[in-house]
Amino acid sequence: MSARMKAPFKARVVLALCAAVTAFSAQGDAAFDYRLQPVKIADNTWALIGSTEDITRGNGGNIVNTAFVVTLDGVVVIDSGPSRRYGEQMRAAIAQVTKQPVIRVFNTHHHPDHFLGNQAYGGVPIAALPATRAGERSDGGAFADNMYRMAGDWASGTEPQVADEDVRPGRWSAGGHEFELIALEGHTAGDLAILDRTTGTLFAGDLVFLDRAPTTPHASVPRWLATLDALSRLGAKRTLPGHGPVHEGSAGIDMTREWLRWLDQTLAQAAGSGMDMAEVMRLPLPARFERMPLARSEFERSVTHLYAGYEQRAMDSTAQQVLQQK
Length: 326
Ligand SMILES: [Zn+2]
What we know:
- By secondary structure, this protein is of the alpha/beta class.
- Helix content is 44%, strand content 19%.
- The protein is built from nine helices and 13 strands.
- Helix 5 runs antiparallel to helix 6.
């Protein structure tokens, strides 16, 4: 074959390759569509409801609820989701609802499914509690790696972007909505609850779960229980939990409290009777939780997170009793 014939052939191959790559990446983008559907939950208020599953390559980490409020001054976003892609698609979903710009993003806490979409909100102030910002800074890299491991390419290009402002707890008004920014803890060291007094809507983050077992990797059960009492006293008309359906009344607070009390009693009793971790994990779930999504796996995870602490307390109290008998 002459050199003159080779060149066009090579060019055709390159063109064909380019076309194939373009087709592949277009198909790739379509395959990573979270299909976010804003659901109106109150006046000017929309939620994006995730599934009550674990993070998988099927759901891309869309296991979380995020929300936005369209005020007269602009859009207030509550949590940005599990990946850069989710954040971008959330922004596009917001743009389908309103032409107003996004003026503020809040991160309720530092868990990856709630803040790894921050990247999509460049140029918008992102606010979180100081403990949340510290957690995003220290754990964000590991969280992003882990999200990629569990969700696969849904999370490609996701980098942790730490919130750039501290939340000042108290009243905060925006475009005709009066928000109460409430600094709490228990699910993590920094849990922001946001009550929109204008609509009576509580954005509870992961302080509240409904019909999905609570997660505890950074939890303090006693503090979380005290926080649930504080949330009850707010008397919100409706609650958007971090995971599970939006609801009127106190079903989410009640279920979360019931789970945490049962978990606390079960682990304390098990430690008191000297059970080892593997035995505790095999304990039966109460009938009321048996069918709840992720109940078994979250119970097992909670044993790994929390049981050593219960064993330590059981040993300390035994030592105390021995000392007192002397
Ligand atoms: Zn969480």
